[in-house]
């Protein structure tokens, strides 16, 4: 086996397999994590979700460390309470849906000079809005992350979300809130 060979690692979510996966990644070994739900134990589904959350965090950390953005907005984070999204040098603000495991998060780089942050979020995990004040300026800026379910109920999304200076997310079928609003769509 060479340092560029792809390894497919079976990851159960236990301490041993998570340690193996972490070590392979730390030495730069290309790896694909595979987890199988055998449905033999009641906790098997939660283990699958834990491995999924863990792998998503690794992917996000890799992108962030290579690009170092000031603001990160994530949707459909599927984070459980115990699965905090910690990325070095970032402060995380998040919301999530307990039942459907959705979630929206905004991460702000610690180099941003911010004197005040006000958080407004949705217990159903559909949106998060930060009002940010920077020292030396009298203006407050708003950043919103939004997850709009395809064909889901849009009536409970506050209209002021669409007045944010920065709004990003998964805006499935959300034309109604954006009418009469000047905006630019960036797809990556």
As residue ranges, the low-confidence spans are: 179-188
Assign a percent range to the helix content: 10-25%
Q: End-to-end span in angstroms?
A: 35 Å
CATH superfamily placement of the largest domain: Endonuclease/exonuclease/phosphatase
CATH architecture type of the largest domain: 4-Layer Sandwich
Q: Proportion of β residues?
A: 25-35%
Radius of gyration: 19 Å
**What is the assembly state of the chains in this entry?**
single chain
- Structural domain tally: 2
CATH class of the largest domain: Alpha Beta
Tell me, briefly, the overall form. globular
Mean pLDDT: 76
Number of E strands: 9
Which class of secondary structure composition applies to the elements? alpha/beta
Helical run tally:
3
- Give me the CATH fold name of the largest domain: Deoxyribonuclease I, Chain A
How are the elements arranged and paired?
Blueprint: E1 7-10, H1 15-26, E2 31-34, H2 44-67, E3 71-75, E4 90-95, E5 104-109, E6 116-121, E7 127-133, E8 140-148, E9 166-171, H3 175-178
Parallel strand pairs: 1-2, 8-9
Antiparallel strand pairs: 3-5, 4-5, 6-7, 7-8
């Amino acid at each position: 086996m060479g340092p560029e060979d792809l390894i497919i690692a079976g990851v159960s979510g236990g301490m041993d397999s998570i340690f193996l996966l972490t070590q392979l990644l730390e030495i730069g070994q290309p790896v694909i994590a595979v987890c199988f739900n055998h449905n033999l134990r009641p906790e098997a589904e939660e283990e699958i979700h834990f491995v999924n959350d863990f792998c998503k965090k690794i992917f996000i950390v890799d992108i962030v460390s290579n690009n170092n953005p000031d603001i990160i907005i994530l949707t459909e984070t599927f984070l459980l309470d115990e699965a905090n999204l910690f990325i070095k040098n970032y402060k995380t603000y998040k919301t999530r849906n307990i039942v459907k495991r959705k979630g929206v998060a905004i991460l702000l780089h610690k180099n941003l000079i911010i004197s005040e942050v006000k958080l407004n979020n949705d217990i159903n995990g559909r949106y998060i809005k930060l009002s940010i004040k920077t020292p030396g300026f009298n203006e407050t800026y708003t950043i919103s992350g939004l997850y709009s379910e395809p064909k889901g109920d849009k009536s409970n999304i506050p209209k002021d979300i669409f007045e944010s200076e920065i709004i990003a997310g998964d805006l499935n079928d959300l034309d109604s809130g954006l009418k009469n609003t000047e905006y630019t769509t960036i797809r990556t």
